Amino acid sequence: MAGTWSRIQRGTRVLYLSRTTLLHRDSESLSAGEGSDFEDSLRRNGKKRAAKRPLRPTPAKLPKKRSRKVRAHGQKESEPPASDLFDAVKGAKSDMQSLVDEWLDSYKQDQNAAFLELVNFFIRSCGCKGTVTPEMFKKMSNSEIIRHLTEQFNEDSGDYPLTASGPSWKKFQGSFCEFVRTLVYQCQYSLLYDGFPMDNLISLLTGLSDSQVRAFRHTSTLAAMKLMTSLVRVALQLSLHKDNNQRQYEAERNKGPGQRAPERLESLLEKRRELQEHQEEIEGMMNALFRGVFVHRYRDVLPEIRAICIEEIGSWMQSYSTSFLTDSYLKYIGWTLHDKHRDVRLKCLKALQGLYGNQDLTARLELFTSRFKDRMVSMVMDREYDVAVEAVRLLILILKSMEGVLTDADCESIYPVVYASNRALASAAGEFLYWKLFYPECETRAVSGRERRRSPRAQRTFFYLLLSFFVESELHDHAAYLVDSLWDCAGPLLKDWESLTSLLLEKDQNLGDAQESTLVEILVSSVRQASEGHPPVGRATGRKGLTAKERKIQADDKVKLTEHLIPLLPQLLAKFSADAEKVAPLLQLLDYFDLRIYCTRRLEKHLELLLQQLQEVVVKHAEPAVLEAGAHALYLLCNPEFTFFSRVDFARSQLVDLLTDRFQQELEELLQSSSLDEDEVYSLAATLKRLSAFYNAHDLTRWELYEPCYQLLRKAVDTGEVPHQVTLPALTLVYFSILWTLSHISGSDASQSLSPQKQLLGLKGRMVAFCELCQSCLSDVDSEIQEQAFVLLSDLLLIFSPQMIVGGREFLRPLVFIPEATLQSELASFLMDHVFIQPGELSSGRSQEDHIQIEQLHQRRRLLAGFCKLLLYGVLEMDAASDVFKHYNKFYNDYGDIIKETLTRARQMDRSHCSRILLLSLKQLYTELLQEQGPQGLNELPAFIEMRDLARRFALSFGPQQLQNRDLVVMLHKEGIKFSLSELPPAGSSSQPPNLAFLELLSEFSPRLFHQDKQLLLSYLEKCLQRVSQAPGRPWGPVTTYCHSLSPGENTAEVSPQGYPPSKKKRVEGPSRRHREDVSVSQEESLEPNSIPATPTLTSTAVKSGQPLGASEKMEEGGSSELAFPQGLYLLGNPRSRSLSPQHVQTPLNPSGSGLGKQLTRLSLMEEDEDEFEIQNDSSEEWQGSGKSSSSSEHRLDLLDSTELNFEDF
Predict the structure, then answer these.
(1) Where is the composition biased (Basic and acidic residues) (predicted)?
(2) Burial class (CB in 10 A: 0-12, 13-18, 19+), 574
(3) Which of 94, 192, 276, 433 has the fewest C-beta atoms under 10 angstroms from its C-beta?
(4) How would you classify the pairing of strands 446-447 and 450-451?
(5) For residues 591 and 631, is the Cβ–Cβ distance under 8 A?
(6) CA 757, CA 740: separation in Å to the nearest integer?
(7) Can you tell me the distance from the alpha carbon of 764 to that of 815, in angstroms, rounded to the nearest whole number?
(8) Which residues contact 187 (CB under 8 A, 6 or more apart)?
(9) Is there a contact between 888 and 950 (Cβ–Cβ < 8 Å)?
(10) Whole-number Å distance between alpha carbons of 1049 and 1115
């Protein structure tokens, strides 16, 4: 029997090897695309199967096939339509198992017809309208059939079923994959080992997967990979059956001679042979699919195809690890980790997560991990956030399952990500940090299946570790981002406010000052996170709201933290009352309390203690952060709806009385004495700061602080003897006094008999007097006073602008204030001196910290934003915007968004005036450069090149609406020509006019002109040049450049007057020379300013945001603009130089070139070159090099996140 078994094994092995070799040859020939023929393989395999299984259907059953056709003739056509199966799968109206069973029934009756129906189903699934007929199937080779189908492919659109949009195609891919899976499942005990359908289906899919048609390649690869996945499941089942059979056979053979059943042994042996044969056949099919499809398509040019391959090989490794979880298969995932497309990298990471998440498989991943660990760690810094998130999650699995694999250096490269601006990435990094540093020390063990409560020692250990990480790492200044990163994985630990407060209140906690400050910030951050339920500033969850369960947890946490912290907050304030860095965040805790608990739980005694500590803190400190926090905390308690309002209001009055009396006493000393010592100055300044902070949040009008503060400011302006520490808060106090008075007047009933006319006049007088003081402060020697005066002045001018009477407040008209010309001029001068300054002028040679520079930049942006608001709301003359617009290009990185928004809104308010302002900006820059450098060689200076860039950016700001901007652009050109010839050279001199180089700036606006307008402008320029003497034969360069920009061939970005883009052929064809010379005088006169329609009046400032500049640049450059094709201009136009003489303007001839060449008339689905399918992804250096060259604008660090991490892929 052993000899018989060995002979059977050798025979089956020979059959398997021959079959595998045959499939290898077919797949290789199909991959090469040369003469492969699945019909020949069908015949060869048919012969092999007939010799192997003589009981298979023979031609004697052909009458049964014909009888089926005859029976079906009365119901449908003799040949069923190829779309029946496709429509059923597309509609997904019936069960896939029933659909496959019907096809199997038809296959049993007629193999060829049923298989042909299956072939046409896959062809239709590719989006091809052609079908494979029986004649084609018999007479044509594989390559001929695919070539024939390619010719019949619908090229009207690039969509095919897998990529088509619409509700009918939404579920097609799922139904398609389900059909393939069900087909294999239903055939696993019958047709799967027949050899006829599966072998030829594999050959068909292999041939289609090698096609140059994307739809064929994509659909067939998906089908082949899903077919492979189903075969893997079948092979797994066969492997299990073999193991069971082997155990049964061994058990039966080990029985005694009297109990052993020879028939049972023989049947088990026969079953083993059958299972072995089936397994070899399945392995042969899998081998053919892997080598014929996967090996070529995992590096396809289409990322969707690469993603399919990687996703499926990951499922093979997880389900059938004994065969596929080897280094020879893992290398494909490792190589593809360097793929350029995010979806492919995502599939790689998810596949690896499934492997590393199984503890039984990690032992086989050691070599792979050692080879590709560096790449997996580096993917934490991937430019795509979702890829980086999955990379961190993969590393968490590696950390849990493979101890010691990740080194300290690997982990240290992941720790900074907890401060990333993307919350999903930061949360994943926080989970990694928790499992690496916190979980081993704070692990809780389960008792009887339930987790016991963590001990206070474990809680304290967690906070000590958290403090150590934050303080020692020195990665960030704000612990709120670290708390948010750990919130999802360590939320219960962070919400242990009892342990936090006990650590802070202990006398011998052995914490340093920095650790105490960090612990206070962690306490405040965790309370805020629990109370508000959203991350800190700079991070967004992307969720619209909380669920009902989350809102319930949030409400419970808010009550819990309030009940715990109300008794302890006075104690914390008392302990840290002398430390401003700790007191300010502690006072912010009231923001997150449920203050009604003071009443409902009868905790008024703790409220009294809190008010006492609050008064002590305010009297003790003068830091703005502490004073603002104290004023805001008292404002929260001063709610009339609370029953304790009278008590809090009395405490507030006591505090303000104390501060006011101290201020009156110190002010009297200042006004009477000529000089004060440092202590007296500090005391007065501190009192003013406290009053200013409370005046911001509380109405202190009844204490009448305006008059004494105004006297103090008047002395400061007149004599200059008041220190700036006193002047700054005094300015703010007067400002708040005016605003609170306006609030009272606006809130009163204007229809009462007692008109507030006297109050209005009094407020107007105070406001005008204060504006004069601020105007005087603009010339102060102290920069802080200058900036403070500018901010307050711009706010007051905006508040008291004509906009204040809008909305039924006509009675406030006497308060409207329009600044005089001198004040407007001083505001503009201040802007030039303090905002538009070079980075080198920020400090006097001393290096500054990054956060200081960012704060200075924010301050300058606030100043510029205030000035621009004055322009847009009509407070200042719009012509003053030229001082802002002329710095658009030079300071684009710092203020580009503000200036662009101002330009957009100004254009929407008055397009004509805005165009004149743009021209005025260029004139001012040109005049300044001319005065500094002189007219000689002006257009070669770097400053002039910057002006050209600015003019180009101005031209792009007009957008694609050429017809709408036609008159404006013509007017701009005409005024520019006048300016360029406004100053003539001395009589008899051959030098060019000093402003003539301005024409080069004007040429940047030429692509915005229509053909006919260009001809009129050329005639107008000729008319203007007749008044200027020029040496014959020496054309001026700016005139030549400008005329070249007006040539018809240069207008490559224009559209037709109707708004439709002309064809490429028309785009390069210009009007004839005769047509240009026959322009009438009346047409020239149409360029006069009188022909431009009157500009609309300003009716509203509620305007829409404009199109981003980047989008308009792309739109213009996409239209073959002059900027996009600098070399093509000489190919399309006359290469000879153009010149102008005083007597005649030489216009260029009609372009003689052949145009742009071929034009695309349809979408071709064929790839240009087969070499495009090769992707160089085997080298990490190449991929990283390409990643470094990516645009830095894709990922920007949040300014609110002061970490300043130097992450390449962020």
Answers:
(1) 1068-1079
(2) middle
(3) 94
(4) antiparallel
(5) no
(6) 17
(7) 6
(8) 104, 197, 198
(9) yes
(10) 19
Query: Measured in whole angstroms, how far is the alpha carbon of residue 1096 from the centre of its chain?
Result: 38
**Cα(293)–Cα(220) distance, integer angstroms:** 9
For residue 121 the two structure tokens come to: 């189903």
Task: Work out the number of other CB atoms within 10 angstroms of the CB of residue 454.
Answer: 17
> Do residues 1042 and 997 lie in contact, with contact meaning Cβ atoms separated by under 8 Å?
no
Q: Where are the beta strands (DSSP E) in 170-233?
A: none
Rounded CA-CA distance 1014/1005 in Å is 11
- Give counts: helices (H), strands (E), the chain: 53, 2
Q: Which two tokens stand for residue 861?
A: 């942006």
> Strand, coil or helix: what is 446?
strand
**CA atoms of 125 and 666, how far apart (whole Å):** 89
Nearest to 1012 by CA among 1075, 952, 1059: 1075
Q: Give the pair of three-digit tokens for residue 498.
A: 């009892």
pLDDT the model gives residue 11: 42
Kindly report the number of other CB atoms within 10 A of residue 783's CB atom.
11
Contact of 429 with 485, CB cutoff 8 Å: yes
Written as one letter, the residue type at 343 is: D
Question: What pLDDT is stored for residue 1122 in this prediction?
Answer: 32
Q: Specify the length of the chain in residues.
A: 1210
Using CA atoms, how far apart are residues 1117 and 1138, in angstroms rounded to an integer?
25
Query: How would DSSP label each residue in 590-655?
Result: GGGS-TTHHHHTT-HHHHHHHHHHHHHHHHH---HHHHHHHHHHHHHH--TTSTTHHHHHHHHHHH
For tokens 């300071």, what's the residue?
891
- Tell me how far apart the alpha carbons of residues 244 and 240 are, in angstroms, rounded to a whole number: 6
The two tokens of residue 1000 are 């080069």
In Å, how far are 31, 200, 941, 1040 from 212, measured between CA atoms? 11, 21, 53, 51
Residue 234 CA to residue 239 CA, distance in Å, equals 9
Q: How far is CA 407 from CA 27, 382, 460, in A?
A: 44, 20, 27
Q: How far apart are CA 1117 and CA 515, in angstroms?
A: 56
Between CA 9 and CA 13 the distance in angstroms is: 6
pLDDT of residue 149: 86
706-719 and 645-672 are packed helices; what angle lies between their axes, rounded to 10 degrees?
30
Rounded Cα–Cα distance for residues 892 and 894 (Å): 6
pLDDT at 916: 94
Grouped pLDDT means (10 residues each) for the chain, 1210 residues: 40 38 37 37 40 34 32 36 74 81 88 88 87 82 80 71 83 90 87 81 90 91 94 91 88 78 85 89 92 94 95 94 92 95 95 94 92 95 95 95 91 93 94 91 47 67 91 85 93 92 85 90 94 88 81 92 94 93 94 91 89 94 94 94 92 95 90 79 94 95 93 90 91 95 78 64 93 92 92 95 87 90 93 82 51 87 95 93 93 93 93 94 93 84 92 90 89 92 73 87 91 90 80 74 79 40 37 38 36 33 36 37 31 34 36 35 33 38 38 35 32
CB contact at 8 A, 363 and 402: no
Cα 1123 to Cα 761, 955, 1052, 1116: the distances in Å are 58, 11, 10, 9
pLDDT at 689: 95
Q: How far apart are CA 182 and CA 99, in angstroms?
A: 9
